[in-house]
Amino acid sequence: MATSEEKIKIASKFLKAAPPGEINDVFNDVRALVGDDELMDGGILAALEEYNTEELATVEVPGIEGKVIVSKHGHIEGDRFLDPKTNQTFKLDHLRQTASDLESHTIDEGVEELRKAIEIDTEAYVADRYAEGVSAVYGSKGVVTIAIVHNKYSPSNYWNGRWRSIWTLDVATNEVKGAMKCKVHYYEDGNVQLETAKELDDKLTKGTSEPNKVIAKALLDFIGSAESKYQHALNESYHDLAESTFNGLRRALPYTRTKLDWNKILTYRIGAELAAK
Question: How far apart, in whole angstroms, are the C-alpha atoms of residue 132 and residue 134?
């Protein structure tokens, strides 16, 4: 029989692999398997914290309009996270994904003006590109970080999906690093998960001598181009998958080696129904 430590380790792996929008379902299933609520609640907080920060969980914070991203880039200390739009920190309950206890935060004046300019362009970009997208722009120690997440849940149609991207700009070197991730779960009469990622490393053509608005526009133009190319490449690859790979897996003919005459089958079915009446 597995020890308590082994049970928590297994439960944590399940939680960290939870599909988009299904963390509560996975938690309840794992809780039933572990069979010890006290052990479960006390042992999986680290896994939930990792899941929330890596998956860019969004929460509603009392006193702040709109949803706020939970990210390691906004982690202050303990269970406190930063909302850079309002420059306030909040306390997060990772288990229930609820936020409370707002406090003001001291900003990094060194990159604040550039961060604000990038934030304005980022919000416009996300509103145009992602219908239900949420963004956050952090600035600290000479680096501006953009976090974008777009969740699309459709449990009635048996699928959920999430798009995430993280972009960093080193103000001193103009170096841009990006990571784009897409995760989709489809579970009608089966269980299929897609998880794909791509990283980029480049430099902006606009330097620090340029006005902040010019740098912000150049950065978001770069991000928009990179995300469009990646999403277009994904669409093409799955189109090819459906047209070629899956076709190759299909049997060209049934075991009889002859094609089915669907008109005859329909005639037989109608005849059988008439005979039954």
Answer: 7
Domain assignment of residue 269, yes or no: no
Query: Model's pTM, two decimal places?
Result: 0.84
Amino acid at 233: A
Identify the domain containing residue 46 by its residue range. Answer: 1-55
- Closest by Cα among 210, 16, 56 to 145: 56
Neighbouring CB atoms inside 10 A of 263's CB total 8
List, in order, residues 6 or more apart from 154 with CB less than 8 Å away.
Answer: 160
The CA distances from residue 69 to 58, 60, 180, 254, in Å, are: 5, 9, 16, 53
**Span 213-268, pLDDT tens digits:** 999 999 999 999 999 999 999 888 877 776 666 666 666 666 676 776 767 666 65
**What CATH number is attached to the domain comprising 32?**
3.30.1140.60
